[in-house]
Amino acid sequence: MKRYNINKIGLVLVLVTVLSACKKLDLLPQDRFTDANYWTTADKANNVLNTAYSQIMSSGDFFFNEAMSDNAFNGRGDNNGVASIAAGTYDPSLGRFKGEWGAHYGAIKTSNIFLENVDRVPNMDATLKARMKAEARFLRAWHYFMLETWWGDVPLIQKDITIDESKTITRTPKADVVSFILKELDDASAALPTNTTYAQTDRGRVTKGAAIALKARVLLYQSRWADVATECEKLIGKTDNGTYALFSTYGGIFAPQNEYNSEVIFDLEYMPTTVSGNNRYYTDLRDMVPISVGGRLNALAPTQELVDSYLMTNGKKPRDAGSGYNENNPYVNRDPRLTYTIVYHNYQWDLRDGSLKTIYIKPGTDPNQPGLDEYVPGSTVSPTGYYVHKYYDRTSKVDDFGSGVNLILIRYADVLMMYAEAKTELGQMNASIWSQTVGALRSRAGFTDANALNYPAVGQSDMREIVRNERRVEFALEGLRVFDIRRWRIAENVLNGWAHGAKYGAAGVDNGYIRANLRTFDKNKNYLWPIPRDERAINPNLTQNPGW
User: Fold this and answer.
1) DSSP H or E segment with residue 451
2) Residue 350, SS3?
3) How many angstroms separate the CA atoms of 129 and 191, rounded?
4) What secondary structure letter does DSSP report for 285?
């Protein structure tokens, strides 16, 4: 979809507003689009669908959602409201709630407008129309999935409604919303092409495989384990619903030269910054990377808790007996995915020209700039002593790290891990499934020790811990952890107390690890977000979630 005419998106956003307000006229104006004269060609319909694609998610939410989990800390400002949410210092007036609620319903409106009007396009190819309808239904299902995940019961709107109607709607039970989502994805899947049958110019559009994978994720969040396994089996080792495979290297998945690789199932589309007039790129990494390589300040810092989750290369936890962990040199002999994801002391940063730069984080260690290391308490550098490397684009703009690399929302590795989790919960994990899933991911990551690769003969509880930790490190800083800790109902365990940084803190306090941020999570109310205050002020029929 990088080749779509994205410059028309602004026009279509105006159009959507116009269409929602227009009434049928006796005389049609010739100098502007109206409800009556717009739907004349497939290209115009496609422009509205492109708008729906542009509304999937913001890059800011993609990255900063990690700071609502125990994986990262938003230490500067309150990006997308995540610092307030992580600290438990929020109420229904928080701007993030109003913004996200409005963004999802705005996107649903776009899909509803498209679905209600595309049949008016004269002489449109029937197969193309069916496919585009399926795309719109998938996108609408995506937004309802996000809404019910955050809020539970939410209004289910299946047509374009008027402003007056919007003030009277009520919340639909979550179970009914989930049923609607699953049916939409089934119907969309039946009409969508596979990833191998789309033309190259249509890369990035929703596929049959994406509909199946999203359905598996929806079912996963409902703990419907047998159904999760069934959906995953439609994609694992099969080609009828698309051809997917793990990419050869872990770091390569996120590199610009490997976009649309075999692992990508569904992603956010961006344009390379080299395209003339392009403004469809993101600059979030500028506030996540080390200051010494051009970062502006640090607004998203990985935590020590995330770093600790990476195993040793022999498959043991860092502090287990026989692991070989050295507290004075803690980043050696670790899961190779750590290096692809997180920047730590003495990290070898790959500069744009291909050379390497040592990142000195531990205070007092930079031989070139004494006292100017990457960790200085109270400054603009990382408050945890860690930085982000995942999604760093060596072709990005020098001044702001502007990148057009697509952000992957669902990849084949997730299908494998959903399958592993489902089989674990069903008590059906075995050596064969392990080899297909966890073993395959560790092998791709670079593990070679048999103790890390071979199936461990452990009970269900221990296997559950292994699978959950594997999921954490495989998808670290990809925005999934916040949803996982909520659906596992462990948020009150991992989000109450201090989030820590590297061992550069006060002696005798938490074994010397930095106390970066004090979090609070109330299990009685924080598993659901409050309905935004302003929405309830406009429409008192919207009931509030418990505790708010």
Assistant:
1) helix 450-453
2) strand
3) 10
4) G
Give the contacts of 432 (CB within 8 A, at least 6 positions apart).
none
pLDDT tier for residue 274 given thresholds of 50, 70 and 90: confident
Residue type for 389, please? Answer: H
Q: Is residue 364 classed exposed, middle or buried when 0-12, 13-18 and 19+ CB atoms within 10 A define those classes?
A: exposed
pTM of the predicted model as reported, rounded to 2 decimal places: 0.94
| Residue 517, beta-bridge partner list | 499
What percent of the chain is modeled with pLDDT above 70? 93
pLDDT digits (tens, 9 = 90+) for 29-47: 444 456 668 999 999 999 9
Q: What share of the chain is helix, strand, coil (3-state, %, to 5)?
A: 45, 5, 50
**Tens digit of pLDDT for each residue in 420-479?**
999 999 999 999 999 999 999 999 999 999 999 999 999 999 999 999 999 999 999 999
Cα(221)–Cα(189) distance, rounded to whole angstroms? Answer: 20
Cα gap 54→199, rounded to integer Å: 20
Task: Read off the amino acid at residue 467.
Answer: V
Write the CA distances from 307 to 1, 106, 353, 408, integer angstroms: 35, 38, 28, 22
- 370 with 350: CB under 8 angstroms? no
- For the CA atoms of the chain, what is the radius of gyration? 24
- 123 Rama sector, left if φ>0, alpha if ψ -120 to 50, beta otherwise: left
Q: Write out the two tokens for 494.
A: 């991992």
Distances (CA, A) of 137 to 12, 37, 191, 338, 519: 19, 24, 11, 37, 38
Type of residue numbered 215: K
Helix axes 225-233, 412-425, angle to 10 degrees: 140
- Is the alpha carbon torsion for 62, 68, 72, 77 positive or negative? positive
For 77, the 3-state DSSP assignment is coil
The C-alpha atoms of residue 255 and residue 220 are separated, in whole angstroms, by: 28
CA dist 379 and 526 (Å) reads 31
pLDDT score of 473? 98
Which DSSP letter does residue 192 get?
P
